[in-house]
Specification:
The complex is a heterodimer of chains A (367) and B (394).
Chain A (H helix, E strand, L loop, with lengths): L7 H28 L3 H24 L6 H43 L6 H18 L1 H26 L16 H25 L6 H31 L1 H4 L5 H8 L10 H30 L9 H16 L2 H33 L1 H7 L1
Helix pairs in contact in A: 1-2, 1-3, 1-5, 1-6, 1-7, 1-10, 2-6, 2-7, 2-12, 3-6, 3-10, 3-11, 3-12, 4-5, 4-10, 4-11, 5-7, 5-10, 6-12, 7-9, 10-11, 12-13
Chain B lengths: L1 H15 L13 E11 L6 E8 L19 E8 L2 H8 L6 E3 L5 E5 H6 L2 H9 L8 E5 L3 H5 L9 H10 L1 H4 L7 H9 L6 E11 L11 E13 L2 E6 L1 H11 L5 E6 L6 E18 L2 E17 L5 H31 L6 H8 L1 H7 L3 H7 L1 E12 L10
Parallel strand pairs in B: 1-4, 1-5, 5-6, 6-7, 12-13
Antiparallel strand pairs in B: 1-2, 2-3, 7-8, 8-9, 10-11, 11-12
Helix pairs in contact in B: 9-10, 11-12
The chains are: A mainly alpha (367), B alpha/beta (394).
Chain lengths: 367, 394
């Protein structure tokens, strides 16, 4: 498609960045509300399910190297019906802006700048996101590498600051509420994995040797995300307890507030939020990128650049509506978003794979 | 075109730097609270809040009055309101700076307030994003306003002084190291109950100017604990009972115990160390049972017995065992028979070992805990006489 190339390491970093911030920030609180102290188990289950569907997405793209889901949809279903795939992808990315902005805004506004207007957070993040998109996917992918380093540092800081309060008894007994509860809760982590799967559906063709190693790299990315997120799930459960974690919208900030290094360093959540900034801005960039790419496909444009501003306006308007009211935000996050994300991100690859098998001739012709 | 877009973006990005003043607070405009007291207000249903606010120009590390200062490192103020937040807002009527909570060391509740329930207090301070979660929390039977404004001998800021008492609390080991973090956890827990440290004003300080009036200065003492049940304080634990509790809740490892000499009416001080407590739950006849085993090593750190320690070693070991066992049993009596409150976190141990049985009795744990059979076994070994030989006391 283009000369743009993303290394395997960058792609893994992109997956980690795409999931990490939301999964430690708001998802763990939801998991605790459903599965109690088994939230780490729900995270693990969600990781395994995500890996499975990432592989399915790879199988689709393996059949049409160099083509993303939008191009494959067009090749399989024709020019007009192919736009349905673009519309579905567009719906997904606009819908995903809700939880992404909930994560971004509530971290900053609730804990640091309660008096700052919502529009400030939305406009500033969309400006940065649009700038990243404008410079292209390679710049965004390089940013993810930096984000990966920040995530590593963030995890080191939280481990140092929290292990002294670690109480394994808070994680016991395992499966107290039964396996169905943990499985039900994993749906919310699946919704986080969905963002990475849909990102892969758009960017995987740019990854080096994606047709050969894309599946392995994608699954490695999700496994790596599972590991870095599990650290938080275990710490939130053991340090805060499931009861406390379940009470908070942004449970990771609760843990960050509790973290301290001896008596000397009492609070350092500001350092942690600085480390958190790159991954969350990366998420916003990918959200804008996915929206603009699917919009440009929908309107038959070659480049997504002209669609960046309309994409930002759409995302900004939708996010403003969702994030502006905490009750609506939580309702959307827990009752609406998973039921949009999971069917699309898990269903679309399966449907596309089915179509690719049935209509393999069309795909070969397009290739 | 690209150039124009870049210019537009750069201009917008430059504009964003102007928003850095949103929500800004200058440090010289803040009233930095270092301790807060909460009690019932004069009118029924109201809250009285006392805040100890640091006076920066006078709290620069020395106790004397710096030039231009008042010599008083703190300023304490009282306000009342229908809720805690309302009372804080009312503080703003006369406190000339904006109240700032991020450096608060201590929250002290008055006994009567705590007995009415602490839900609003836990909720307010955990909802407040400024407050540190390791802010100490305690209960007092004295006036909290007096407790938080009592200047101690060594520290400039009383709130910091009490925080330091908490920091070294494990040495004395007679009060829980209660803070907002563990209070919230226990408060929300389905199985255990909160326990908070007790602060008392005692006349122990000696005035340098009037040494003959020894014990005339009031000081804040950290000893004992307040027991809660279902969000309300139900009673006190003595310092000895609290020592017994700390083996369960804070894995207390060391402390000093004084026992009588077996050969005379004199006393002997033992420092126990490496104390290890094991709780073994069991379930018989639909009732929980617990076996508590405490093992500790001990050193003789002071002896007035006037005899070879080796000869009386078994006797002092037995005396130490009885003493430690007595503390745990006294605690159990209070928790099981008097307060019916599981402050020992036995429910957590039982729930982890017997999750299926917990589902049956979890809802009525308070009565199950009160009726539970608990056996206590203590094993102490005196290992050393420290620096001296065993015959040195002869």
């Amino acid at each position: 498609m283009t000369k743009l190339r993303i290394s395997n390491g960058m792609f893994i970093s992109m997956i980690v960045n795409m999931i990490f911030v939301k999964s430690i920030g708001v998802t763990q609180g939801t998991l605790a509300r459903i599965a109690g102290q088994d939230m780490w188990l729900a995270t693990l289950l969600g990781t395994l399910q995500g890996m499975l569907f990432m592989y399915v997405a790879y199988l689709v793209m393996k059949r049409a190297p160099g083509m993303n889901f939008l191009a494959i949809g067009e090749a399989l279903l024709g020019n007009w019906l192919g736009k349905i795939v673009a519309l579905v992808v567009l719906t997904f990315f606009i819908a995903s802006s809700g939880p992404i902005m909930i994560t971004f805004v509530y971290h900053l506004q609730d804990y640091f700048l309660p008096e700052a207007p919502l529009s400030l957070f939305l406009v500033s993040s969309l400006l940065v996101g649009a700038l990243g998109c404008f410079y292209g996917l390679e710049v965004v992918a390089r940013l993810a590498l930096l984000g990966m380093l920040f995530i590593f540092l963030l995890n080191v800081l939280i481990i140092i600051g929290s292990t002294q309060e670690f109480d394994i008894r808070n994680l016991l007994p395992v499966l107290e509420q039964g396996f169905p509860s943990a499985a039900e809760a994993s749906l919310h982590y699946d919704a986080d994995c969905a963002m990475a799967i849909m990102m892969a559906a758009i960017v995987m063709p740019f990854v080096n040797n994606a047709d050969k190693h894309g599946g392995k790299v994608g699954m490695t990315g999700l496994a790596a995300t599972g590991m870095v997120t599990l650290i938080w799930a275990l710490l939130e459960g053991a340090v805060l307890s499931a009861e406390v974690t379940s009470r908070y919208t942004v449970s990771c900030m609760k843990l960050a507030r509790n973290a301290h290094i001896g008596d000397f360093m009492q609070r350092y959540e500001m350092i942690m939020i600085a480390l958190y900034s790159i991954p969350v801005l990366f998420e916003i960039m990918i959200c804008i990128y996915g929206t603009s790419v699917s919009m440009s496909k929908l309107f038959g444009m070659r480049s997504n650049r002209w669609m960046i501003v309309p994409a930002c306006l759409l995302i900004g308007g939708f996010s403003y509506r969702i994030v502006g009211d905490h009750f609506r935000a939580m309702q959307y996050l827990e009752k609406v978003w998973p039921y949009i994300a999971v069917p699309i991100a898990f269903g679309l690859p399966v449907v596309m794979l089915g179509l690719a098998v049935i209509l393999r001739g069309r795909l070969r012709q397009a290739g | 075109m690209t150039r124009k877009i870049l210019i537009l973006f750069s201009s917008l990005a430059a504009l964003m730097t102007c928003v850095s003043c949103v929500g800004q607070r200058q440090i010289n405009e803040l009233a930095i609270v270092t301790a807060v007291g909460i009690e019932n207000g004069q009118k029924p249903g109201t809250i009285r809040l006392s805040a100890q606010i640091i006076r920066p120009s006078d709290a620069r590390g020395q106790t004397g009055a710096p030039s231009g200062g008042t010599g008083q490192p703190i300023y304490s103020a009282l306000a009342e309101g229908q809720t805690i937040f309302d009372a804080i807002r009312n503080l703003g009527r006369f406190v000339s700076r904006r109240v700032y909570w991020a450096h608060n060391f201590l929250i002290v509740m008055q006994e009567d307030y705590a007995r009415n329930g602490i839900e609003d207090m836990v909720d307010f301070f955990t909802r407040n994003h400024e407050l540190r979660m390791n802010t100490r929390v305690a209960v007092t039977s004295d006036s909290p306003a007096e407790v938080i404004s009592t200047i101690t001998g060594l520290e400039v800021v009383p709130g910091q002084a009490v925080d330091n008492l908490f920091q070294d609390n494990e040495i004395v080991g007679q009060a829980p190291s209660s803070d907002m973090m563990n209070l919230e956890e226990a408060y929300l827990s389905r199985s255990s109950e909160p326990i908070l440290a007790r602060l008392t004003l005692v006349s122990r300080g000696i005035s340098n100017k009037k040494p003959q009036e020894h014990g005339s200065l009031k000081q804040v003492e950290l000893a004992g604990a307040a027991v809660f049940k279902e969000g309300r304080m139900v009673g006190w634990l003595s310092p000895e009972e609290t020592r017994g509790l700390l083996f369960f809740t804070e894995r207390l490892e060391s402390g000093i115990e004084v026992v009588g000499c077996p050969n005379s009416g004199n006393k002997l001080s033992l420092e126990f160390r490496d104390a290890r407590l094991k709780v073994k739950p069991s379930y018989r006849n639909e009732r929980p049972e617990f076996r508590i085993e405490l093992r500790a090593k001990a050193d003789v750190v002071e002896s007035g017995c006037g005899t070879n320690i080796a000869k009386i070693r078994p006797d002092i070991e037995r005396a130490l065992e009885e003493r430690l066992k007595g503390e745990i049993e006294a605690l159990l009596r209070k928790a099981q028979r008097e307060y019916h409150s599981d402050v020992l976190k036995l429910a957590d141990v039982f729930r982890n070992k017997f999750p299926a049985e917990w589902r049956k009795i979890g809802d009525r744990w308070s009565s199950a805990f009160s009726e539970a059979r608990v056996d206590v076994a203590v094993k102490a070994n005196v290992k050393s006489v420290v620096l001296k030989s065993e015959e040195s006391s002869q």
